[in-house]
Each structure stands twice: as C-alpha cells, then as structure tokens.
Amino acid sequence: MSDEVRHIAVADLQRFISRCFVAAGIEPAPADTVAALMAEADAFGSDGHGVFRLPQYVQRIRDGGINTRPHIEILRETTAMALVEGDNALGHLVMHFAAQLAIRKAREHGIAWVGTRYSNHAGPAGLYARMPLAEDMIGLYLAVGSANHLPPWGGTEMLLSTNPIAAAIPALEEDPIVLDMATTVAAYGKVKTKAQRGEPLPEGWMIDREGQPLTDPQRANDGFLLPIGGAKGYGLSLVFGLLAGTLNGAAFGRDVVDFNADSHTVTNTGQAMLAISLQAFGDPLAFKRSVDGIVRDMRASPKLPGVDEIRLPGERSWKIHRERTAEGVPLNAALLQRLEQLANELGVDGPV
Amino acid sequence: MSDEVRHIAVADLQRFISRCFVAAGIEPAPADTVAALMAEADAFGSDGHGVFRLPQYVQRIRDGGINTRPHIEILRETTAMALVEGDNALGHLVMHFAAQLAIRKAREHGIAWVGTRYSNHAGPAGLYARMPLAEDMIGLYLAVGSANHLPPWGGTEMLLSTNPIAAAIPALEEDPIVLDMATTVAAYGKVKTKAQRGEPLPEGWMIDREGQPLTDPQRANDGFLLPIGGAKGYGLSLVFGLLAGTLNGAAFGRDVVDFNADSHTVTNTGQAMLAISLQAFGDPLAFKRSVDGIVRDMRASPKLPGVDEIRLPGERSWKIHRERTAEGVPLNAALLQRLEQLANELGVDGPV
Fold first, then answer.
1. pLDDT value of residue A156
2. Rounded CA gap, A206 and A188, in Å?
3. Between β-strands A206-208 and A223-225, what pairing exists: parallel, antiparallel or unpaired?
4. Mind listing the pLDDT tens digit for each residue in A134-155?
5. CB–CB of A78 and B111 under 8 A?
6. Which residues of B touch A231 (CB under 8 A)?
7. Which domains, from first to last, does chain A contain?
8. Which residues of A touch B167 (CB under 8 A)?
9. Nearest CA of chain A to the CA of B111: how many Å?
10. How confident is the model at residue A1, as a pLDDT?
C-alpha cells in the first residue's frame, strides 16, 4: 500500500460527502448540512471523526439503521431547556438542530440546555461546542459514545463509552479555547485511526481482560480503553452518560448499541448541549480580554526540562484548521482507496 | 502525640463550629448555616474540608480577610441564570445562597445556572451538588480552588488550581450518584490531611520542579499537583476555572490568592452551580428507576483479577454518612488538640 498522501480542498471534500449521502438516499439540504460538518471535522484535524466515518454512515443507511426522512422536533421545552427527538436521523442533523436551538434560547435567556434522544453518532464533540462561539457564547457538549469500550473501574464488562466532553470559550485576539476530550485516555476513534494506519497503540490506552497492556490495534476487541485518572475518569464517563443519555430517555449502559458492529439497530444516541451567553454575565469584551490574558500567562510561563512549548486546549486544532483551509485535507492512500471504492458503489464521482 | 481518636456527634460538632464562628464575630444565623455545612462535610467523610478548616477560617476572620457583615445579593439575572455577589462572606454562605437560588429557578424553568464572585473557600464540592437532590434535581458544581497548585501541562508555574467538579444524580432505591473530584490526581486538601497525619504521599500525586516524584507532604511547597490524564486534566481545570471564575468576574490564574499563605487579602473566589429538574425532561420516577438499574448493572458486572467490588461514585461517602450519623465524626488527637486550642483562644467550650 502506498504511503502517498493526497490533499483535497475542504469545499471539495464537503461536495464529495454530500453527493455520497444523496446517492445513499438523504435529501440534498440535510446531506449538505452533514457534509459541511464532517468536512469541518477533517479541517480541524479530527481525522477519526470526519470523512473517515463516511463508509460506515453509508453502510448504516443502506442497512436501514438511519431514518433518511426524519422529523426532528422539540418534545419538551421551557424558556431555557429543550428535549429534542432526533427520529433516528444522522446525528449531525440532530445536533445541528439542538445546537441552534440552544443558541437561540441562550440569546434570550442567558443560558440554555438542550438534550437529544434518538440521535446518532455526530462526529467530534468540538463541532458543536464551537457553534456558540460566533455569538459570544460559551458552548459545552456531552455525548454518550456510540459503542461501549470502557468497564466501570475495576470491572471487565464494557458498560460505558468514552463519553466525551467539549467546551469552547471565546477569546478576543487569541484563538478560542476548545477542549474536546474523551473521558478515556484515548478515544476509540483514535484506536480506529491507528488500526487503519497500521500503527501500534501507545501503552496506557488499552488493557486486555487480564489487565495487561494491549498495543495491537487489530486486537482492540480483546480489551478495553482505560479511563483518565482511574476511578475519576470512570466517574466522569458515568455522569456524562447519565446527563447526555438517561436524562433524555436515550440509551446508556447495557442498552448502548455498538454501531461499529451493528449497522441496522436503532442506536437511540443521546447528547446534551449547553450554551452560555457572555452578555448575561457582564461585558463580553472584558471577558474575552481576560481569556486572552490567561492564554498568554499560560503560554509564557516557565517550562519543565525538555518541554518546548505550553499549549492551550484546541491550539493544535486551530493551527491545523488554518493549514487545511489553505492546503486542503490530507487523505492517506488507504482512506482514499476506501472512499473511491465507496464512490464507485454509489455511482458518484470520487473525492479527487 | 497520641493516636487516640474521639468521636463527636454531628450535631455537637455543628454546635461547636457555630459557637466558634459567633465568638469570632459572625452573626448567629449565618454561623449556624456554615456550621451545619461544615459538619455535613465531616459527616460525609470529607475530612480535609470540614472542621479541619475551622482554625484557618477563624484566622482569616481575625485577619480581616472575611466580611463578617456581608450583603450577599443577585447582581444580574435572567429566568434561568444569575450572578451572585458574595461580598467576601464565608464561602459556605455565598454558595448556600447560590444553590438555593439555582434550585428555585430550576423549579420554574427546568434548569438554572448560578455563578458567584467575591465568594470564598466553601468546603467540599459535593455539599452543593447534593442540595438539589431532595427536589428531584440533578446538581452540578464547579469552583476555582483557593490556591494554585497546578501548572499548565508541561509548565512549572502554578497558574491553576485543583478546580473541582461535583455532580449529584438522584436514584430511587439506591443512593444517589455523587461524583466529587478534583481535576488533579489528588486534591490539595488530601495533601494537607496526609501532612497533618504524618503520612507520606502516594507516588503520582505531586512532582517537584525537576519533574521528580514528591512524596513528603511537608515538602508540598517544593512541588505541584499532577492533573488527571495529563493534558486532559489541565484542560478540565482550565475550563472549569474559566466557567467558575472568569465568567463571573472572579479570580482565576495569576490573580488567585493563596488562602493557605495569606489570610487577609480578599480572594474573590468564584463558583458555579447548575440545577436540572428531572420533571422538565420527563417522568422523574422513570429516570430514577433507570439510574437504579445502571447502578446495579455496574455493581454486579464482572471484576478484574484481584478486585473485590465495583463501586459507584459517592458510594463510600453515603456509607460513611450512615456510620457517622450513628457513631459520630472521628477526630484524631492532633486535630482535637488544635480545636481545643482554638476554643481556648475564642473563650468557648471545646468540641467534646
């Protein structure tokens, strides 16, 4: 297999994704919405959560695991919260709806919390946390992961997922701070990327059922991910799962469908989104200036021996975003081949 | 020094704390509110955050670092959020006000977020996260820690604190799930408890300025705490600090006053509280039944070799609470001696 990497413009990537979805039966407007978010994921460097997932999403559509004509709607709401019924749409559509709703409510009421049920895998958490930034809002996002890879602390049954949290916080001249993290040492998407690239897993990402380190990504099914901070990461995964899943009547724990292994069962994925308007708390400009100051204090502070630079959460993703906006998204040979094959199957033009 | 441990009834502990505060100049009603919360902290096993802190709080009052006649008020509010001015009161009073306000707003609007400024150290995070439980609400609490003990990831300047998160989630027959965790491997309160007990620190809690493990709690000032999950814990501490501090116009980063070293400067501590009403999202009974099921699934799931039991976050604290409610709070000889000395200084009856 060639190691060659091809670059594709973000807009071209979006168009490719969109035509694949349309060919798979999604209507053009929602196909475009999902494609824009997936291409944005790649543009920000979320290599395990962008176009890499397209073949899997298309497979799920073909196998009847996605509703291609969904009616996404508000099930319950107050001034500052809502529960959104996703009607088993592609997760990006449900979360796009939920995030826009949270922003609209936060504009009026200072803050808003919106939960989703009957959603699906929606790509990287950062996509949705970043949405309120343009409105001078802080975004927070929680999700139940789309497959269980984490046992409770001390256990061996995978009852929990990587249940991520993302937070995006506006700055003035500096890039916004964007934390986007799994509650496990590594997200499962990163394991999949390693497998796809044929690279070993760093020790500490996974252990096997005897508690021994697992470093061969092809053996990922023989073990499970490790939570950050031991029992603490387990606690965070559990709490985020209850907030993003159980609270919304969405799946959590033993009910979670492994969307990697099963492409036809309704997943009933749950997510939650919080938008906080800076305006409600004071002067947005003063807040953003303070964030700039904190960012600069961190970055300029003294370093441990051997450390080159102190980074802020999201710093790397903004840098990648600038690079890829200019130079396009790099697709490795294996991924490119897989996407060309998909295009052939769907009877549409390939990505490049 | 004797190793003897004396038990004191929770109600007696509360009365002791209250009379110390009154003797130090706090009015009786607020003194009682703070005392009840501090005794509750001890009853739940937060040994580093209950009566253990009393001498320090009293010292701060004597040194003019606490406003003994505060006017705690709402600075800004919408239907679902508020910003509370703590007027440099004891932190427990500010957070008691903020939590009650969040609960009241969540009763009407489904959710509420309340931030504080010019607050102070308020004891363990779990105290406030648990408050909404009785109303069938989920509680979330974030705080800026009262001294910086954590550098940014890769750095050596302590610009961050242990900035904790607590979450309390109602169950039906099972104990509520209560996660109460620092974003560092260990909270600084635990380091203080180890120092006070003359016990070494486990490796992994702290490193020194060369990056070497630090295990002597008497040398705590020569090093700093480690975040959970490396860069991830740093990111969580940063984000929680921005949400609980900067957003409220409270101190964060370089502005944080080390309340262990300085007992007279106004700390401008910030906290944030979120209350979520189960009723807004659906049937509270169904939710709590689901939580019971998840708790039981976790607990009964298979264990790694050598593991005795799988616990839920907060499980230990509920067990301790039952024990201490029945048998009293154990005070070791060193702490008891310190409290008796304090009572003497204040001219009030001792704790036992």
1. 95
2. 10
3. antiparallel
4. 999 999 999 999 999 999 999 9
5. yes
6. 311, 313
7. 1-62+327-352 (1.10.1530.10), 66-184+227-300 (3.30.1370.60)
8. 239, 243
9. 7
10. 45
Closest residue in chain A to residue B153, using alpha carbons only: A310
Q: How far apart are CA B318 and CA B45, in angstroms?
A: 9
Say whether B310 and A210 touch across the interface (CB within 8 A): no
Distance from B132 to chain A by nearest Cα, in Å? 15
Per-residue confidence band for A66, with pLDDT thresholds at 50, 70 and 90:
very high
* pLDDT at B189 exceeding the cut of 90: no
pLDDT score for B204: 86
Measured CA to CA, the distance from residue B213 to residue B224 in angstroms comes to 10
- Percent of chain B at pLDDT above 90? 91
CB contact under 8 A, A247 and B313: no
| Per-residue pLDDT, A86 | 98
A-proximal residues of B, 256-295, CB under 8 Å: 276, 278, 280-282, 287, 290-291, 293-294
Q: What angle do CA B299, B302, B304 make, to 5 degrees?
A: 110
> For the segment A231-253, what is each residue's pLDDT rounded down to a tens digit?
999 999 999 999 999 999 999 99
Chain B contacts of A290, Cβ < 8 Å? Answer: 246, 252
Contact A280 B78 (CB under 8 A): yes
Q: Do A303 and B155 touch (CB under 8 A)?
A: yes
Q: Is A279 exposed, middle or buried (0-12, 13-18, 19+ CB in 10 A)?
A: middle
d(Cα A323, Cα A329) in Å, to the nearest integer?
A: 9
Chain A residues touching B111 at Cβ < 8 A = 78, 80-81, 111, 113
Distance CA B131, CA B133 (A): 6
- The first and second tokens of residue A125, run together, are 């958490």
Place of tokens 């919408």: B78
Torsion sign across C-alpha atoms A24, A25, A27, A28: positive
DSSP states along B52-81: GGHHHHHHHHHTT-S-SS---EEEEE-SSE
Chain B segment 7-66 residues within 8 A of A by beta carbon are none
Tell me: pLDDT of A158 over 50.
Answer: yes
Residue type, position B283, single letter: D
3-class secondary-structure state, position B336: helix
pLDDT band, very low/low/confident/very high, at B203 (cuts 50, 70, 90): confident
